[in-house]
Fold:
Amino acid sequence: MTLRHWKEAGSYFRFRDHSIFYRGDGRGRTGLLCIHGFPTASWDWEPLWLSLRHRFDHVVAPDLLGFGWSAKPRGHDYSLVEQADLCDALLAERGIERVHVLAHDYGVSVAQELLARELSQPRRRAQILSVVFLNGGLFPETHRALWQQRWLNGPLGPVLSRLMNEKRFGQSFSRVFGPDTRPGLIELHDFWQLIAHQDGHHISHRLIRYIRERRMNRARWVAALQRSPVPLRLINGPEDPVSGAHLLQRYRELVPDPDTVSITGVGHYPQVEAPDRVLRAFHEFHDRLSGEKQGRPLS
Structure:
């Protein structure tokens, strides 16, 4: 599917007076929520989409506020907590009451906040059934930001945002991929179109504040991983300089009974670099969950 077709197949809904783009296929009260990362959009899930649709009756994937084809308000204080509110609002919009989650990068923190809410609000409208994490900053101490991210997060961030262009983006973005799985020029152009839509690259310094927010919420979000009864799996591309093998090691240290899969030769975007292997690990996890559910005695 092309980027244009992805957009044409999407929909919009209103969240706090902002227009939010999302892909939503199917119907039903049980579904899958896919949460993308920084600085991209729901388009990241396209390589997996058909297979996910075959497995789940209802699949939704938003472009979070400030990303992709969603609204990109200037001067807005972007927040991971607000993005979790957005996801809750989308689930309500679609009538989803039981949800599995697949999250990547920036999106893993949104998923952690949703897990934390599940612990503190057990009667929430949408019950989380499982979470699969891809590469992302689950633990602030293992998030090794690229120098471009560190500068964006500093006092010169507004200037650097305005200096960003397609060539500079491509050079920086390609560094987080595996040595043999880097995106080609066409793929990079598609990613850039999403970022630059409505001059979205000019708000990068505002979106990058999630790095600080992760530090502020570390106790809450790590506790969500450690205390949640929800089944979790981490699928990790170890060649990722930002959240690769070192994240996998830390996850195994801190999360009880860790369920992890390492996909060799792959970097920060496993779903783009090795979609077949990600799907294998994802479906294996859900096959096991389905088997456990079927094996339970009736109450």
Observations:
- The chain has one domain: 3-290.
- The longest helix spans residues 275-295.
- Residues 295-299 have pLDDT under 50 and may be disordered.
- The chain has 14 helices and eight strands.
